[in-house]
Batch of 3 targets.
Target 1
Amino acid sequence: MWVWALFDLPVTTPLERKRATRFRKDLLDMGFEMVQFSVYTRFSASKRRAEALAKRVGALVPPDGKVDILFFTDKQYELIQSYRGQSSRSNRSKPAQLELF
């Protein structure tokens, strides 16, 4: 299960910019990766963990900020088509599963 955080945060004042930067840093600290400037994604092993992660993100939203959380299955994630310049990248795959002993 993939969790995507899409957000729009106010950055008019220095305090708002500081809060927006803190929010982005918190997402990175939680293991998210930046897809675009206001779009971050992270793989989660289960729907239950994905929902718990979404609640953690929701608790970090700065005042007047707007954050949407999207959930994608592995199959849906693999169907995403990304275009960069003249090249395209599709057929994504989930990260390798780690075994802990």
Target 2
Amino acid sequence: MINRYCFLIFLAAAFSFSCSDDKSEPEPDPLLISSIKIDGVEMLESTLWKNISRNAIIEISFSAPLDPAFANGAYVDISGNEILAYQLSSDQKKLTVSVNQSLKHLSRYLFWISHEIKGINGEILQDQFSRNFYTEVDPSPKFPVISDEALLTLVQQQTFKYFWDFAHPASGMARERNTSGNLVTTGGSGFGIMSIIVGIERGFISRAEGLERMNTILTYLETADRFHGVWPHWLDGNTGKVIPFSTNDNGADLVETAFLVQGLIAFRQYLNETIPTENNLIERINTLWKDVEWDWYRRDNQNTLYWHWSPDKGWAMNMQIKGWNEALIIYLLAASSPTHNVPKIVYDNGWASNGGMKNGNTYEGIVLPLGPPSGGPLFFAHYSFLGLDPHGLSDAYCGDYFLQNRNHSLINQAFCIRNPKNFVGYSDENWGLTASDNHTGYSAHSPTNDLGVITPTAALSSFPYTPDESMKALKFFYYTLGDRLWGTYGFYDAFNVTAGWTANSYLAIDQGPIIVMIENYRTGLLWDLFMSAPEVQHGLTELGFAN
């Protein structure tokens, strides 16, 4: 009897458990995205969405009908508080998202679908979906279209304001960047001095104003810190005292000094020695020029020149100046010095590495005579050639320095057109890799260090070498991208469409070459002035150059 009773209890329990199981609901299927089309083009499997219409229509198809409560911007959206419209299809399996207000052109946006979105039967999207996308270019001009000559003048005049309106009020020197306060830069001031000549010739300022500013600059330079006649990279614009560039770089900078002296010599050649006030400036420039002890920077008579020296750190930086890079002008001025010159062996061994700086390889179908693979950052073709005219210039290491700089520029453009890293926005109009600010800091951008950053000074300072290609870039930067690139002192330093970043900065060493090299393209003015200096011609001869 007991056994039978226990058996009945067991059956009742089993039946009860079975009934309970029958009442439990199965887990809903996951909600899947089966398709995403933008303006009718399937994009779901694509990882890079670019050239998207500014009034895009996005169609999202799901594996199950969507709960209408989730068909809104809380669950499906585009970053940036854009005005969107949402429409669910009759079967509720397709959600259409329309942009009601045009997106910004050539800009980065984030499109996302929340993992909290649900189907009508509770289906859940297991993972959030998101993609960065980039809108198409709006080709309409952002400013009135003017003649090419007027555009070149406008760019020179606006950029000149950096060196004129924004110059340090006490010293007249160029600030390193637009946020530098009292910090002024030696090399950038050399570029600025050359731009003053352009300013006078183009009528942006009067000759009297330019001479007055030059007097202010010379007065400052005469009492500013120098080390064996060599200025530091950075100085306090009020006191003239060195501001360390780094821990061990708190003294002389021979490269920055050479860029300054290049500007001083060009300005000297612009002056009229028969006018007493101008002759006074000439004599003062000559004194500063003669005081630079280029030969001392051979460091115990070595056959090379050294970049830095400090009274308390000595030669701790230990950086020899070797080509090919931006520093050819240092060796030319050292050979040209009437008081502290260096012999040709210093140029051959130190700068040219006895031929080690030669290249001769082909990049992008173009032969590069000198320098690193693909040429390096484009400022190599600019800084030494603001005054030094490469036309017809040759020596034992390069048969045609103009061709070197032209080919370097063409390689740079061709690399951007090929765009092997698939950065957004690169084209035959949007090109130019050189040292500048970027979205993470600062870098010397080049084909071998391509971070997606286009720097306007690269293409614009190559105007003498690539006039057609540079004019394309100028028109693109001004007319097409002017709404984001054009500001108080001309073009902002750089931009990266892929990173969604545009600089708000200006740098003296990037703005100066734009003014000077556009002028060299138009009239050859700075080339003519610098090359007219008898010391420069003597130095070229001493180093074995033909020009």
Target 3
Amino acid sequence: MEERSRLRRGSEVSTKPVIDLKFYLKLFWTTFTLSLFTFGGGFVIVSLMRKKMVVQLGWIDDEEMMDFITIAQSSPGPIAVNASLMVGYHLAGVPGALVSTLGTILPPMVILSLISVGYEAVAENTWVKAAFHGMRAVVAAIVLQVTWALFRTLAETKKVLPLVLFAVAFIALFVFRVNIMVVMVMMVLLSILLSIREARKEKMR
């Protein structure tokens, strides 16, 4: 049974789960299956994590998911592991973080260990190559889907500052090819400065 503490933040509504053994098992199984059946990198599992934990389970909302992705991307380590850790910690503290992280790292650890044994035998296989080419197209579609969902959440706030920062970051990354960490630091500093300016304007009114 779940405690219905529903709050509207962004385009989805979050439902706070009851923290018990059943929840921990569900959290582990959710992160485990997401990691097991995801190919194409961290942003793919993040997009599927949003679909599962925001849309289907309602454990977190879109705004929280965006915050977790931002922190996961700017922190050292794989974004998928960082995002899972953040979600688990948000839901159930340190135990939740440990459970979700274990569920995320276990599948690739086992699969890569098995692949490393027979890699030379399958690396040049025609069927394997064809499968990877097909997965690339799916990965691109999934990344575009989550990008649109997060941008829509940003636009729904109807605030000018986030949209301006998005435009500046997009131009810096895709037009001028600026390093992503440099862009993130610039956006943080710019956001702080503009927020201070807005706060001062509010006080003067």
